[in-house]
Amino acid sequence: MPQEFKTKLKEKKQLTPDTWALTFDLGAQTLVFQMGQFVMLKILLHEKKGFMVNEEKKQLQYRSYSIASSAAEKNFIELIVKKTADGFVSRYLTEIMDIGNELSIMGPYGNFILPENPPYESIIFIAAGSGVAPCLCMMRTINTRALPIYLHLLFSNKTEADIIARKEIESLCADNLLLSYDFTLTRADDSWQGLKGRIHSEMLTPRLSNKKRTAFYLCGVPAMVNEANALLENMGVSPNDIKQEIYN
Ligand SMILES: Cc1cc2nc3c(=O)[nH]c(=O)nc-3n(C[C@H](O)[C@H](O)[C@H](O)COP(=O)(O)OP(=O)(O)OC[C@H]3O[C@@H](n4cnc5c(N)ncnc54)[C@H](O)[C@@H]3O)c2cc1C
Q1: pTM, rounded to two decimals
Q2: Ligand 1 center to residue 247 CA distance, Å?
Q3: What CATH number did the domain enclosing 133 receive?
Q4: Which of 56, 82, 127, 237 is the most exposed place for a label (fewest CB within 10 A)?
Q5: For 154-213, what is each residue's pLDDT tens digit?
């Protein structure tokens, strides 16, 4: 059942040139959610640091963000916010908002859920950019709660500098044998040793040969999710085994 929580920005950490992790303090309140769900921020924008609201861009704004922190965390919630080109609210959250500022969080919402006892043995999560946020929640929760779920992340970015939470993903996968990842870069420089180019079937086939019943989770902007969906359907994956969250 969604609820409204009054929160304060506790921490703001820049992860990549255009992405920040924002941590909100829940105090004594408890937000119970399932891996993959999102919250809606209810933000009363303040005119400061040159930021302006007007007739078209009103002071009270609502935006959705996937929960990136572990479902085991009770006192805070972490969101990954990409400052989009010409983005109004994402710019406010990442550049203008200060530690200690208040806002309301409503949720949890969404059906892009990974249950703790899923009807699958294995998950392949295909993400681009900030679409990795719900996967971070899943990896962190699988790790902290020792859940018996295999999860492989196929994470597409433009350059190495754009890989969100790279060190943490590498370290979670090194520590937990059920977790694995591949990074692919669409604008890799010559020194990059990993996968290159947009997501294609050869990046997925080695992961499908293990006979485990697999579900695919796709998350990111519409073009990426639609492309990955079409690719999986061409590979013969049943639409029933594909779940998607589109950021728009
Ligand atoms: C269920 C759901 C979960 C979401 N979770 C996240 C999240 O975890 N992290 C996150 O950064 N955003 C997420 N979004 C997108 C977020 O709600 C906002 O749309 C985004 O922050 C842009 O808001 P804005 O006011 O800055 O720009 P707007 O003026 O609302 O939009 C500017 C443009 O940015 C595009 N856009 C939106 N999100 C992205 C993105 N992530 N990357 C590239 N382009 C984008 C929009 O299609 C639009 O064309 C989510 C959206 C939905 C529906």
Answers
A1: 0.96
A2: 5
A3: 3.40.50.80
A4: 56
A5: 999 999 999 999 999 999 999 999 999 999 999 999 999 999 999 998 898 878 766 778
